[in-house]
Write a structure and sequence with these properties.
By secondary structure, the protein is of the alpha+beta class. Helices cover about 15% and strands about 40% of the residues. The protein has eleven helices and 35 strands. The strands form six sheets. Strands 14, 15, 16, 17, 19, 20, 21, 22, 24, 25 and 26 form an eleven-stranded mixed sheet that branches. Strands 2-3-5-4-6-7-10-11-12-13 form a ten-stranded mixed sheet, sandwiched between helices. A hairpin with a 2-residue loop joins strand 32 and strand 33. It is globular and about 75 Å long. The protein starts with a strand and ends with a strand.
Length: about 675
């Protein structure tokens, strides 16, 4: 990324500003202003998240927000109540109080002497979520948003569930917030003993979010709150929706383009859960320049040409060998003037034992009845639901998984095949248990037989008709189900093959059913549909500038960390463990005189084929140190299950120096509800 040193406007930083809410709670903000904004007011751009602007996101913020300010905007980064230096407690995601506070912040911004009354929102992940949610509240000053790696549907397409299956990332994310919620404000900002009072308020009051989430296993009002898909028309401001193929939130871009009725653009690159100017896998793009074109058009009324761009610009990925981490994904940009694309056509393959049959006649000659009962090992090479590309967390060679699956493979392709959109598997099947799942994977198989997963989908079969009102299966009864795979853009080269793989478990990406299940598949009535997109001349016009950002933050790495993803197998006891370590080491923020350390370790294990043995364990370590101020927290969470309940054990310990000043623990059993 090129660091920009000279901006059109000089930038002034307000390290901490306080925004008062109606109930007296004060939220902490960091603000970057272009010089002279008090004399000639400018639009404001808000990012509103709970990840601690003073330290934890300081490096990332420093590349983006001063860049916006240097181009004539007031850039504002606010900690949600109960996080960072803001007062209050943070008790869950996307609460009504959070959204009301967000609308109040926008009003406050519009009233400042340096703001001209026009406000935009930008955010990745949480900030992308609440940008959409606050837009649905229609605060008058909010004129446009940029929503990155977010979702319109908190139940069906978030870190918690997929196809009605409980995701392993549900535990991982709950543990991340368990650790973040345990952290204190900075005594340099919240002076005296007030910082300690706020800290203990958080330790006592934030609660165990994993428990809250597990008590809502269906798509009920809890998840409908904050899901803008409940009323697309509620959003009345322009939306730029952005994600990457290695991210967990790609599908929402395509739904937003299809269903919103406001001016909108979609951008999908090869990236993981990162802003595209920092995008990994590469290539990164000049995303901040694209944002300026967007903001200049919608907040300043300048014709930048941004709305002359195609509705969707996406990175068509070329075939690559399978591995868990890529620095770069080869491919090219493609463009669609509208979505769904009128140029796409559907190609059908029918299932035959071991094969994807392209013709109806062949299907009729080769239809069969097959059965499947997958081992718990299927899924250990699946990667995480949401890739951050911090650890090697992308799917590895699918041959490691396919021994426990039914596979159906096409003949070698006679010409390249390009797909853009969401494949769909239509399956006719029966189960021998009332609760069952099916995992569906589409892979690119090279002539040397290496198999790279390009899309997948999950379905809890009790959710076959509804996630709001799931129904148990009648053992032995036939059901016709549709499994939508994730949206994708992929080139299958000549002589490569398509492989469809089906399994009855996918641990630890998804929590397995309560007991082993045998599925019966009726291949003559089952099929795969894929969205074929012909290359178009308009693709050649898609161009992006190289990534830019403001100068990086001055910080020193005191202690380097490590990132790894390791499978550990004890063949003597049939015990297998997946260990994920994300250790960022210790860094020193020179200007703040502050040292910060963070480390997360996750273990996912099972024994033999015991469906009561899957176990997820996480530990988060945080530490802050300055002169005589030294605080750290350790949070531990374990999730197990039996056929009737999920079991949570959690522990929270907080320390000042060597003294433990707070400790709490939870032991809970939560009834399984057709999961």
């Amino acid at each position: 990324m090129r660091s920009v040193r000279d901006f059109p406007h000089k930038v002034r930083t307000i390290e901490t500003a306080w925004i008062a809410m109606a109930d007296g709670v004060h939220l902490a903000a960091r603000i970057w202003l272009p010089e002279g904004a008090e004399r000639q007011p400018v639009p404001a751009i808000l990012e509103y998240i709970p990840y601690r602007h003073r330290d934890n996101t300081r490096s990332r913020d420093q590349r983006m927000h001063p860049y916006f300010a240097g181009h004539g905007y007031a850039a504002v980064r606010v900690d949600i109540r109960g996080s960072g230096n803001s007062e209050g407690t943070l008790e869950d995601e996307y609460l009504e109080s959070e959204l009301q506070d967000g609308a109040a912040i926008i009003r406050w911004l519009a009233e400042q002497p340096w703001c001209d009354g026009n406000v935009g929102m930008i955010g990745i992940s949480w900030g992308g979520f609440n940008g959409l949610q606050i837009a649905a509240r229609r605060p008058p000053a909010l004129k446009a948003i940029v929503s990155v790696c977010s979702t319109d549907d908190r139940y069906a397409d978030d870190v918690h569930h997929m196809g009605g299956c409980l995701l392993g990332d549900n535990l991982s994310w709950a543990s991340t917030m368990f650790g973040l919620n345990s952290l204190p404000p900075d005594p340099q900002v919240v002076e005296g003993d007030r910082w300690r009072e706020l800290w203990h308020q958080r330790l006592r009051g934030s609660g165990l979010w994993l428990e809250k989430w597990l008590r809502h296993q269906r798509r009920d009002d809890y998840w409908k709150h904050g899901s803008i898909c409940e009323d697309w028309n509620a959003v009345q401001c322009p939306v730029m929706a952005v994600s990457g193929w290695a991210d967990g939130y790609t599908n929402a871009v395509f739904r937003l383009l299809e269903h919103l009725q406001v001016p909108r653009l979609g951008l999908v690159g090869p990236w993981s859960h990162k802003y595209p100017h920092e995008g990994i896998p590469g290539p990164g793009i000049g995303f901040l320049q694209e944002c300026l074109r967007w903001w200049d058009f919608w907040l300043k009324g300048r014709d930048t040409g941004i709305m002359d761009e195609p509705m969707l610009r996406a990175w068509m990925q070329e075939s690559v060998p399978p591995t868990t981490r890529y620095r770069h994904r080869p491919g090219r940009w493609v463009a669609e003037e509208s979505w769904p694309s009128p140029a796409a056509r559907w190609k059908e393959y029918f299932l035959a034992p071991g094969r994807l049959a392209a013709g109806e006649g062949e299907r009729r000659r080769t239809g069969a009845v097959q059965t499947l009962q997958s081992p718990l090992s299927v899924g250990f090479f699946a990667g995480k639901w949401c890739s951050y590309s911090a650890a090697p967390d992308l799917p590895h060679d699918q041959r490691e998984e396919d021994g426990g699956a039914l596979i159906y493979e096409s003949a070698p392709l006679e010409a390249p095949l390009e797909l853009l959109g969401a494949p769909e598997a239509e399956l006719v099947l029966a189960a021998d248990r009332p609760v069952a799942m099916v995992a569906v994977r589409l892979s690119d198989v090279a002539p040397d037989d290496k198999a790279t997963r390009v899309a997948y989908g999950l379905l809890n079969l009790t959710h076959r008709d509804s996630s709001e009102h799931p129904q148990a299966l009648e053992p032995g009864e036939r059901y016709r189900v549709r499994v939508k795979l994730n949206d994708m853009a992929q080139v299958f080269p000549r002589d490569h093959r398509l492989r469809l793989s089906l399994s009855t478990s996918y641990w630890p990406l998804a929590w397995p059913p309560p007991e082993p299940v045998r599925l019966t598949l009726y291949t003559a009535e089952s099929r795969l549909r894929i969205p074929v997109r012909p290359p178009a001349e308009r693709d050649r016009a898609v161009r992006f500038e190289a990534p830019e950002g403001a100068r990086p933050l001055a910080k020193a790495v005191i202690e380097t960390g490590e990132h790894h993803w390791r499978v550990i197998r004890d063949l003597g006891s049939d015990y297998s463990t997946l260990e994920v370590v994300n250790d960022d080491g210790m860094v020193r923020f020179r200007k703040l005189g502050l040292e910060m350390q963070r480390k997360a370790v996750e273990w996912y294990s099972y024994q033999n084929d015991d469906f009561c043995s899957p176990r997820g364990e996480t530990v988060w370590h945080w530490r802050f140190h300055r002169d005589d101020w030294d605080v750290r927290t350790v949070t531990r969470t374990t999730l197990t299950s039996d056929p009737s309940h999920f079991h949570i054990h959690a522990q929270l310990d907080a320390y000042e120096g060597k003294k433990r000043v707070y400790s709490d623990n939870w032991d809970l059993a939560i009834k399984r509800d057709l999961v």
